[in-house]
## 1
Amino acid sequence: MIDIALKNLFRNKTRNALTILGIAIGVALLLSLVSISEGMNKMISSFGEGMVGIITVLPEGKSLFTSTGGQLSRNFVDDMKNFEGVDYVIPYYGILLPDMTSYAMGVPVDKVGEMVGEKIKIKDGRMIDEGDKDERVAIIGSTYSNYKNTNTGDKINILGKDFEVIGKLEEGNSGAGDIMVPIDALQEISKTDKLTVIFVRVSDVERTEEIAEDIKSTLGVEAETSKDLVRKFSDMSSQIGFMAYVVGGISALIGGIGIANTMFMNVSERRREIGIMKAIGATKNMILKQFLQEAIILGLIGGITGIILSFFGIYVLSLMIPFVAMTLNLIFIGLLFSLGLSTIFSVYPAYAAAKVDAIVALKYE
Amino acid sequence: MPVIRTENLQKIFNKGKKNEFSAIKGINLSIDEGEFIAITGPSGCGKSMLLNLISTIDSPTEGKIYICEKEISKMSDNEKATLRRKIFGFVFQQFNLINSLTILENVAMPMRLENLNKRAAEERARYLINQVGLEGKENNKISEISGGQMQRVAIARALANNPKIILADEPTGNLDSKSGVQIIEILNDLNKSGITLIIVTHDLNIANTARRIIKIKDGEIVEG
């Protein structure tokens, strides 16, 4: 009797609306975190593919994720070029911008495409080329462009100097959240000739690990292969994934308690009605089913509301974090989560309703 | 053939304790199909309790109840619920209608519980509402009608699944005398159509309309 279940839900509009809101917030929170985790995995996969055959060289004890500013001598570039099996070397200088979310990546003007080891595609404008060596020009990622509302032709301020945006990357590039500028221009305004990272492209991919070890032992620096980086990224992603489950679990508990509380109040208020239903021939199962139906409808409405909320949440996140997007998978998770939650947490109240003694209930006012 | 038969029916509260109390004391009763019975007695004598036991809403401490010659103590809760849906129709003093539902939905409810689809259940409910003189009020809420009309709704609901027996517990207890007379007339007509009617009442005028009066005192039949 779905029609009766729906009608019953309208009897306590405020209470049920608050319960729905509780479920919706839980679902939206869970989906947003899962979308970040999924986005990270996609980024790792894309990054890992792009970094095959590239060794990342950093000062000893440093990590690519925490590296910013000048920390490596330019002399290392020449040292590395002389290693056997090295195809070419890309010096890189990067600084974290004051907004703390984006990087300005100083890249050699002739190696922009190879910089992140992937085929960079320009959506708007043009790529930095050799003629831009000392020019204050920039290419921006799609996420940066959306988040900062910046486009080709606009100016970006880096360390007090204006850089002209000459191009915008296509969506899906791993540098989506960042800015690429000529390395010489960035080092000039930073007043340094030191490097943040050196990327070394090997000629034989099979020998990547071996050459990395060689660089490490000879020069006393960190030399990470794509496998090391993917592993570190994966660890980070796993932590975010774990957090998603913890937050999901907590929101499930809070949402679930809300559902159970609402259902217990419904049972308590409708004790006499349950007695009447039993007196005119409703079985325990019929009563149980009726209350479960009501809880499942609550869960479904909460789930759908949560999915709608998460569309907005994920959209905002996607402006800041690359690869974050609403997927069919997330919609499925949201619905499953809300329906599971409402079913599990309403079983006991529904069972309590089914067990109501008709004689006692009929005397209940 | 009796439609209801009881053997040594007893209802004892707090059995074996200091405050043990017998509400029904060994009642033997036989009611034939089509009878109109009034169960009377002073307040608290056990007449409503007897009705609750017969209707399977409550369970006896001892003794046996046969409904259409089937002993009900051996029945499961689901079988008893089926009996209440199919064999009995209930009319209570407090009406016992579901306030959140409309008149139509209240009357259709026993049929919906019988798994009849919504459209068919409501079609029959409309017919029954017309029969009790409430045509045009199908979509009214229970709070929008008078006590007499509520009891008519209760009668319509009692008739939903074509019951063999109607059990009416003080059906006029909460009504003015004019409405009370109308309700008894409706119940009388139902009995004339072949439905067994058992009315619990302390009103002798109503009891006198029955063909048999069973008088109860302190949980025992003293007459009838």
## 2
Amino acid sequence: MSRWMLVALLVCAASWAGHAQEDSDADTKSKIIAMEHVWAEAYRDKDPRALARILDDGFVCVSSDGKLYSKDEILADVKASDSLQLLMDSMVVRLHGDAAIITGIFRTTGLDHGKPFARRERFVDTWLYRNRQWISISSIVTSTRD
Amino acid sequence: MWIVLCAMSLCVSAQEGSEGGTAATIRALEHQWVDGQSRNNNAALNLIFDNSLVYVEYGKLVSKGEYLLRIKAAGPQISQIVMEPMTVRTFGSTAIVVGTYREKDVTGGKPGVRRWRFVDTWMYKNGGWVLVAAGAAPLTAE
């Protein structure tokens, strides 16, 4: 009888550990998605302060016109942002231990020299868990075709 | 004291050597990828790509399976990819590669050259580096 109870306890513990892991992964994915929204809000508000905290100093970004940006250049770009609205969707996070890849789409509307524009772009960002926080180390943005 | 200093110096050298070795390994893998693609060598590409690979190709998101299917279905390659210098940054078991390449192809009977800038993410898994994410954008700002 006690052996069966032990087996039952082990099964429960394994199941609980599995759920805990799933919860933990779900939490991590939610955190990364939330930080992507911080990014969008920074552009909308032309305020790079929050973004500066979640980009690694060695961060690199390639924009949809193939231009290469460093962290400082991205922060300067945020200040000069012409975006009025930035909506993000279709975000999927893939976890790889202390790293994560997120893919998604953002739709930007704004004014460029007084002329309204609308863009739909796809991004692939790489995040790393470092010093007890997630930081982005790279990003690539391309114009969507689908 | 000298022993400690020597040991510390040795550790730093080993670290630098290891970093350089990693960068060289990843550069070689980038070239293997181009080579595998140009030869329609799915077996080679299968080893280089992680199963969860996400790849943005011409603005479209494709999985490893979709990418390999396209390579398998492709005829003799009419486009030629010439890699240019690339930068490898390592963050422990993750590496970011940024570089450019020229794609020479024939569209509508006319030869053309397009230049792309790419960002690839590699991870060290099960004793080897595998590609987990990649994307390229055409250089139009030149």
## 3
Amino acid sequence: MRYLPKSPADRQEMLASIGAKSIEDLFSGIPERFRLREALSLPGPLSEAEIIRYFEDRAAENSRGYTSFLGAGVYRHLRSVVTDVILQRGEFLTSYTPYQAEISQGTLQAIFEFQTLMCQLTGQEVANASMYDGSTATTEAVLMAERVTGRRRVLIARTVHPEYRQVLRTFAKNSGLIVEELPFDPDGTLSASAMGAALRDDVCAVVVQSPNFFGCLEPVASLAAQVQPSGALLVVAVTEGVSLGVVRPPAEADIVALEGQSFGLPPSYGGPFVGVLASREKYVRQMPGRLAGQTTDSRGHRGFVLTLATREQHIRREKATSNICTNQALCALAATVHMCLLGKEGLRELAHQNLSKAQFALEELTKVPGVRRVFSAPFFNEFAIELPRSVKLVNAALLPEKIIGPLALGTDYPELTKRGLVCVTETTSRAEIERFAAALRRVLELPV
Amino acid sequence: MSDRIKKASRHVNQSEGLIFEKSSPGKRAFELPPLDVPPADAARALGAQHRSGGVENFPEVSEIEVLRHFTRLSTWNYAIDLGMYPLGSCTMKYNPRVNEFVARLDGIATEHPYQPQSLSQGCLKILRLLEKCLLEITGMDAITLQPAAGAHGELTGLLLIRAYLEKQGNPRKKVLVPDSAHGTNPATAVIAGYEVENIRSDSQGQIDIAALRDQVTPDVAALMLTNPSTLGIFEQHIPEIAETLHAKGGLLYMDGANMNALAGVARPGDFGVDVMHLNLHKTFSTPHGGGGPGAGPVATKRILEPFLPAPVLVESKDGTLALNHHRKESIGRVRAFTGNFGVLVRALAYTLAYGPGIRQATEDAVLNANYIRKHLEGVYDLPYSRPSMHEVVFSDARQKKNGVSTIDIAKRLIDYGFHPYTTAFPLIVPGAMMIEPTESESREECDLFIDAMRAIAEEAASNPELVKTAPHTTRVGRLDEVGAARKPVLRWKPATRTEAAD
Amino acid sequence: MAYPAQYRYTKEHEWVHAQGATATVGITDYAQHELGDVVFVELPKPGAKTEAGKSFGTVESVKAVSEIYAPASGEVLEANTVLADAPEKINQDPHGAAWLIKIRVANPAELNSLMDAAAYEAYIAGKAKDASA
């Protein structure tokens, strides 16, 4: 087998030098009745070409050739080929967690740069080396707020991604956390008055997302001013980090839980992505996840190490800030490389292109009779539209046109039937936007 | 020393600062196609939310500077592509490159989790086939591919146990964790809402059965077991362990980190395990990438199937696959979207490469570990004499007499061109040296490792200072971890522009 | 380093210096030596209650965290804020400048059951013997 660097002679000689007659002897520690006598029933073995063929056949059964207007927490963005060139260097791809700092300086410095970029992006003072994704990062942010404040109630806006809220509920069930959802106003943002009414001195965190699930920007600064005097922390989730190229960062938040997928990671049917927690320095010891810190070596040279490890599971065990061990290091590297390639001007321009394309798309779509925007708050690259008929039926009619239409909101928001979420990024050409509008017009003209 | 060191030393003394230190206004690395729609008036559209100047202090560098920067950084890392990582329980095996290729295919990397299921049959087939393969390998009945890593899988598994017991009327209070367990086990149990009670190992390094019989009460929800244990030894009494738990209504959770000793040889489902997680970034070759991503699928017996995280993959009569969200008893989601799909693709590619021949990999892994054990047995203290499987644990007891510890030996191993083994774990072995070569090492590489370890043992006896001050050949010496923890500097700031290391 | 005669000592390596109704608490030289370089100390705020035998804070090195146990029940009057910026003082002067907290002792009689300096030194000598056995 091509992955096994031993010849039959090697095996024989090694067995002989151990004093074993056959490899079976080495499994004598397993009670005999558990040792399999037959080979497992598994497909393969496949050669390299057959493996490629298998996955190419699967690729052909997906959505190639379709234009998609889906966002909702996973975004199509241009990626530079340079990113993969770097990611595929064996020293990054096949290296281990940098516990042995002397031979992991590449990884550690890259993490330090990632942490810095995340602070710059979010306006926060400290950021960690990554969590699994935005949804678990948001939950970890709430648990962090619980540790910091000692309180057990969390208020979460319904405008936060439905799956993020589901993840929080799964964790909350076992931890004694009480989760309450807050309604939204007709403009598409969190109802500040409902929040104010629910804010008592037993609340550890208020969680919002900006841009929120509907694509609308939440007024983070004024929310912070309302939340923080009560002693609760403001947690802001960000699912579309590219927005921060042109939108004010949530600097007033106490904790930011960011999904970094937009920076250099393809949609990949839902993962792997990269979550980040960013917060104030004063909370760093309550922050879960790895942290790379700058230091010096015995010769006085600058170097980097994993630090503040006493927060983590391998030291604190049952008293750890989290059980997280493996994180998303290579994805964080992809995001780091991508952000360096974009740079200050590139990110600003990219964000502006997204904003422009979405504005244009909204104008074109609302020219179609019966189509109107649902909410009124400022938005970035996503917005909700109302259709005169079921979104699911409209989408079914758009499929033969090779268009994947808006995400139907009615499943997660029963009061929002006939409304769909449209996302437009720099990857969608003007021609495709116009084609979508024209197809939508045709579909809506058909008899019901 | 130089004639003993047969492997080339890697560490390039290239000076390379932080990317921010190369930045200057006006440089760009990535250009976008021109905007083909009317430009938005951002200030008008966003009002008070407008960030007009771009991200302050974001780097401004050119494409070649980015490429050189990260290429230079990469040369400071050790990697599997360069040589062996004998890290115990990490299973640092070869990361097959065809896995990288297929994960990047157009139509695989590009798919959105919310696209219509009729346009996702390719993705769903990949998930279904991987599920079937992992069930065959583990001997379990049901599986979820949602968890993002082993610890995430552990939590999912414990939540499944809790839901099952809750349905029986009492979720119970305690989870038993062996003193040899990985730190994620107790950390996870607490997050799942349980108290942790330690169960000690006996003189053979196995679970103390007598102690277990006392400690398993109707208050105990589960025992979290790693098998083979973190000592690399198969738990002889696992049938009794399972029976003891089941008799009192508790469940057996298996931490699957050491599946590299079992794949194709024995199945946890056959020896009494109720629920377990797998680490795809260990046994199933997906790359560690400097610390992740991984994936931690959780496989269960039928009794826990109703509680699996939603959605669950279902197959209709005509073979169409769909994700079923309507699962009343589900514990809910443990993360957004389907899972670390890109990692799952790589794991499936690995499994397809071996097919039923996966047993050979396991045999080679166990052969390598035993070969190393045999040739280091006289040189390092071996605290437990039971047969080793895919990993072996020595201790620094002999070398400690000269003041040389496991950490010193590990650092000296770097000078010999290897990554250190796992130091100071498991906790039940003072001065532990945990070695797992995996099946990816040739006889030559094993011999080089044995040679290096023997040489270091000699140095520990004749020249301990050399070992205690290692490594000597790396770009940076031992780093000041105390300073890093006392006054943490966790980001670059413009005001504190320091000189690049020379 | 000498163990001051006027202090009392616990099995968990804390010292306590009773001065009337108040007492000063710290960790011993043995404890700081076992820990290694101290990087962080977590102490309770004034007003917090201590319970004899229960943990009131932690001392951290790079690789380990140790709980600190209260030698007596009472109320925290003062915590040593110097340690926030200079935790290394615990390694340098554990019996003096690196005291941890000052408490108002609820029941001074509790302190009588603790070891005196001679008994503590014998106790740690015994531990050293066990370690090298």
## 4
Amino acid sequence: METTHLPDEIKPVMENGVPADVVSCSAGGIPNTTIISQVYYVDREHVALSFQFFNKTVKNVRENPNACVLLNDLKGRATWILQARYEHSETEGPVFDRMDMQIEAIASATGMTGIFKLKAADIYRVHTVRKVAFRAESTDQN
Amino acid sequence: MIPEVIVLFLDRAIVAIGGTRDKDFVPHVHRVSGWRCSPDRKAITCLIPEEFTSDLMSSLEDNGQFALTVCEVPSHETYQFKGDYVSSRPSNEGDVADFERCRGRFAERVASLFGFPVDASRAFVPEPSIAVTFQVREIFVQTPGPAAGRRLVPREE
Amino acid sequence: MSTDLEERLAAKSREVRVLQQVSSEINSTLNLEEIFGIVLRTMDELFGFHHSMILLLDASGETLSVAASRGYQGQPAGARVAVGTGLVGVVAKKRQLMRLGNLGRQRAYMSTIREQMEQAGRGSELGESPALPGLSDVESQIGIPLLIKDTLIGVFFVESIEQRVFSEGDEALITVVANQAASAIQNAKSYRAEAERRSELLEAHERLKELNETLEDRVRERTLELYQTNRELRETQAQLLQSAKMAALGDLAAGVAHEINTPLGSIHSNADVSKRVAAVVRKALTDEALAPVFSKHPRLEQALEALEQAAATTLVASDRIVRIVKSLGNFARLDEAERKKADLHEGIESTLTLLQHKLKHGIEVIRDFGEIPQMVCSPNRLNQVFMNLLVNAIQAVGERGTITIRTRLEGDQVVLRFADTGHGIPSQNLERIFDPGFTTRGPGVGTGLGLAITYRIVEEHRGAIEVSSDVGKGTEFTIRLPIRE
């Protein structure tokens, strides 16, 4: 199943705390794979990734905005694959604030204040959303 | 060459994710259900399920670039391998052992850490349909922390 | 479809019922602790929040304290969290509802990083975990700000060892309950503050009453003090006035004395001339050769007698005036620094002359003057002494009595004794008789300074003064003055 916008059912998946995967590509054509802790739902057409440390993904999308995101839904025994394009970064506003709050709460609750500081919210526009359900070993559809 | 310590790591890691890019420089993700290191420690073979083979071969045939991130939980020790496509073939019985080992580790670890039912976890690692081998060119540390991003192989100057 | 609708309807009805119940229960009490209990219990019943806390923002706005909790072993009441720290602190800072899940994984992730950092020698950059005691194996948390309009009064905090997923509907409901709780808490706090203020006011009122009474006492004391001070001031004023009067009097006396002297001289010498002329005429009257002339003037003898009488009276009178004027002059010499050799008897006589008018017929003055040399002194000052003592003696004697003035030379001291047969001085007053201001004559009569001044003047002359007295018999003042300087 493929859509061009994010369905409601993907929201809890984004918040299930299971790490997601991001593949980006440099201007020179070298792919980069990485595991990230959370993808943030912005709206039906956008997701955000937190930019805390400067890394290869951050560098790549600024050279080549295309990105591929994989979300794991363990409970739902499915994965979601998003094709997206990096649009812009936000350092303030409701999306940034929400992400900032969360990171701040977790960081300070684990003694990591100052080390985990949100630099920016990288906003991606989603082009395609594909749900990949696994062949269940049992007949249980849940 | 892949250092011995990394080879040992590969034997205890539980999650792997592959990435390619197509002719338009659009990246694609491929979940990896199993992996093994070549005896000469120069290449890694990845076992990829059918569900995640979209754009895989076309990309590899276009530019041969492959990236693989492998992670161990709960230590979060993580490494990224970048390299050049060597070959591919449908997965066979010879791959089953590797696949089962990797899947078993995943399921058992997830069950013990997060209380997830084992069979659900197993279902999360589908059987592979294709085996892709790539020659490792670079290895990077991706363990979260101050060293993340550092290149391990070849050693940074 | 209809089942789903029915389910949803049932759920909604239940929510409404619970909300109504919460509302009525919360609003039925103004007791903070009861309100906390209702809120926490409701959240448990409605959402299965088994572990929850209500934290209130303190006055500084920088710290939250646990005001009530439910479901914890060791109750974390009183535990404090800084605004901005942890979920609770962030909710307080941003005033927004916030959920955290998968905390187990987060903790594991963070601990990896912590380890890495410690291994890389950057352990000092790591902070301490905050001190909000809660579930150690917590998986999910939710924090809801307690707001009155836009003012934060606290945070409602729930945590669970399970992953909790909240729908938007759940969040809306939680927020409604939280808002009600916030209102109720604020009302209860206001009520409590009001009650405290009332009791403070009452206390203040009591204290004020006490203070008032004390104040009245103090005012009374002070008034008395002021009265006494006023009296002292008046006395000093009187003394100053006295000194001024004395000074003015002295000036006047000196002026008068000076003015009188000249015509007095004329009167005296003229009277003298008259006396000598009369003597010449008398002698002529006894001459027989002039008898036939004088027989023609029979009243010549009478006239001569009258002249002789007039001259004699005039001389006596003018002598008297001279003496008075001299006394005045003596007394008027108020130059205190003037020290010269003086005859003390002269001073005593001058003073007696000035007191002539007070010496009634019943008062006898006995002068028992010994041989005393002239002495270097301040004659005017000593005259004041004589004046004081004689005035006192006259007053003590009253209508009838004797004042005896005895002077002697004893060794190298001149001893002057002023004794009277007056009413005497009681022994308890004798000690204080030279104290300034001490008087037995009642307020307003004299300044009580006379004897004090006397004492001082005697001291100035390096002398000593004593008093002895018998009530009903009399008083004697003894002054000893050294002759030598």
